[in-house]
Amino acid sequence: MTVAVNATYENGVLKPEGPLGLKEQAKVRVIIQSDEEELPAVGDDDPTGWKVARELIGCISDAPEDVAEHHDKYLYGRE
Fold it and tell me: Is 7 exposed, middle or buried (0-12, 13-18, 19+ CB in 10 A)?
């Protein structure tokens, strides 16, 4: 059975806006799709890691020109 229901998240609990028609203690799978553009990460101001990645771009000035194409060669000594 698949049911789509709107719910509100309060105090760590999802509260459906209407009855679900489930038996008590029924096991279900929940997939969260927020109406907000992006879910805030708890305790993390850079959940995707892009802030840190952008700081690293261009930080190695003496790398060979083909390092991106042949990174295994330079990192592990193999092609």
Answer: middle
- pLDDT tens-digit readout, 13-51: 999 999 888 899 999 998 888 776 655 555 667 778 888
Quote the CA–CA distance of 52 and 8 in Å, as a whole number.
33
Structure tokens at 68: 């991106």
Assigned token pair, 79: 């092609």
Asked if 78 and 72 count as a contact pair (C-beta separation under 8 A), the reply is yes
pTM over 0.90: no
Q: What is the mean pLDDT of the chain?
A: 83
Strand ranges for 1-79 from DSSP E:
7-10, 13-16
User: Residue 47: which residues within 8 A CB-CB, separation 6 or more?
Assistant: 41
For residues 70 and 68, give the distance between their C-alpha atoms in angstroms, rounded to a whole number.
Answer: 6
